[in-house]
Automatic annotation (TrEMBL):
GO terms for biological process: retinol metabolic process; visual perception; vitamin A metabolic process. The active site is at residue 165. This is Lecithin retinol acyltransferase. It is an enzyme of class 2 (transferase). Gene3D superfamilies: endopeptidase domain like (from Nostoc punctiforme). Pathway: Cofactor metabolism; retinol metabolism. It comes from the Eukaryota. Belongs to the H-rev107 family. It comes from Podargus strigoides. The chain crosses the membrane at residues 199-232. One of its GO terms (cellular component) is endoplasmic reticulum membrane. It catalyses: all-trans-retinol--[retinol-binding protein] + a 1,2-diacyl-sn-glycero-3-phosphocholine = apo--[retinol-binding protein] + an all-trans-retinyl ester + a 2-acyl-sn-glycero-3-phosphocholine; 1,2-diheptanoyl-sn-glycero-3-phosphocholine + all-trans-retinol--[retinol-binding protein] = all-trans-retinyl heptanoate + 2-heptanoyl-sn-glycero-3-phosphocholine + apo--[retinol-binding protein]; 1,2-dioctanoyl-sn-glycero-3-phosphocholine + all-trans-retinol--[retinol-binding protein] = 2-octanoyl-sn-glycero-3-phosphocholine + all-trans-retinyl octanoate + apo--[retinol-binding protein]; 1,2-didodecanoyl-sn-glycero-3-phosphocholine + all-trans-retinol--[retinol-binding protein] = 2-dodecanoyl-sn-glycero-3-phosphocholine + all-trans-retinyl dodecanoate + apo--[retinol-binding protein]. GO terms for molecular function: phosphatidylcholine-retinol O-acyltransferase activity. PROSITE patterns: LRAT.
Length: 234
């Protein structure tokens, strides 16, 4: 039915868009390898990082998170199909390509892996403990945060909505798995659903006015199409 079709379509849209924003942009002809900046050892000054720090790397459409373990090592959760297919640690430890990432999202498999800061940041800028302001009084000890991250290293289930990289770091550093960017995205989808329902309601009211009340189509049709056009323009 039309009533059920809108939420279903929005849910499908949510899954597709979240899948797209988790795909990392790779340079043309890279074959899935990281850009030169990310591959160069010492590209980032790790002397300002402390064990247990929460690291953020802003992307174009989302933010990637990790916990710094010291000695140029970062624990972070990434969708990855390979841990479900092989136990070869040398293969798994290679930088995750888009193909592996997409298949991991689709099959809902992932791994908490340990990479260098260079591979984790992937050429992007790094923010340190930027989320602490959102959890006043809830920051765990740095050693506790690092130990939590180390205990979770390995294969794990993955969910775009319930178990992503942000859930992982907020659990490690603040004791509660939370994803603010997922919450914001869900709110946006809810607004789209509400807008679609408003447009549908306007259309039905306009049609009912024409059929039941005999109003002139010249005055009623705008009540049908104007909200629709405004919604599409927005």
């Amino acid at each position: 039915t039309m009533k059920n079709a809108v939420p279903q379509a929005a849910s499908l849209l949510l899954e597709k868009l979240l899948l797209l924003v988790h795909v990392r942009a790779l340079p043309a002809g890279s074959g899935g390898e990281p850009p030169p900046a990310a591959a160069a050892p010492g590209y980032y000054d790790t002397s300002c990082f402390k064990r247990g720090d929460l690291l953020e790397v802003p992307r174009t459409l989302f933010i990637h998170f990790g916990i710094y373990l010291g000695e140029n090592r970062v624990a972070h959760l990434m969708p990855d199909i390979l841990p479900a297919l092989t136990g070869d640690r040398r293969q798994i430890q290679r930088v995750v390509t888009n193909k592996r990432l997409i298949l991991g999202v689709i099959t809902k498999t992932a791994a908490v892996r340990v990479d260098t800061v260079e591979d984790f940041a992937y050429g992007g800028s790094v923010l340190v403990n930027h989320m602490d302001r959102l959890f006043p009084g809830q920051v765990l000890g740095s050693e506790e945060a690092a130990r939590r991250a180390e205990k979770l290293v390995g294969a794990t289930a993955y969910s775009l909505l319930w178990n992503n990289c942000e859930h992982f770091v907020t659990y490690c550093r603040y004791g509660a798995p939370v994803s603010f960017q997922t919450d914001k995205f869900c709110e946006m989808v809810k607004m789209i659903i509400r807008d679609q329902r408003s447009v549908l309601a306007s259309v039905l009211v306009g049609l009912a006015s024409i059929v039941c009340l005999g109003l002139a189509p010249s005055t009623t049709l705008p009540t049908i199409f104007v909200p629709f056009v405004l919604w599409m323009a927005g």
